[in-house]
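Example record

One chain of 157 residues, shown exactly as stored in the release files.
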Amino acid sequence: MSDFTHLDARGQVRMVDVTHKQPTVRKAAAEGFVACAPHVVAALRDGTVPKGDALALARIAGIAAAKRTPELLPLAHVIGVHGAVVEVEVEDDGVRITAEVSTADRTGVEMEALTAVSVAALNVVDMVKALDKGTSIRDVRLVAKEGGKSGSWRREA
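Predicted structure tokens for this chain:
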């Protein structure tokens, strides 16, 4: 069982103790896509979504979500999210969402970046669901990370 960092000697789930790790600068980037029907894309582009500004809400929700990740993921550490940028761009077949999160702490911000994208995407769906119930989220994934013991990583195209 010792090969599993989140299991104790008895095989019980535990939170990894990072107390003795030194804080370092860490960054992570994630992306996702909300697939939308053409009439939804048109409403997003011209600002006529009945519920209001879906894109602004998605950005704000994504930033808020990054800061609340440990409330959603029980084994995630409470860390200082020192920077969070969520970009929301309307494309011809939907909305591309990207998030970049940074910290100077003892553990990385990959989950915070993924949570930011996921919650931003959920907010887009919530804002446009009256226009099209078929709107869907896809391809939420980590695209890069920097810092920490494992160093830098970038997803190949």
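Notes: The two ends are 35 Å apart (CA to CA).
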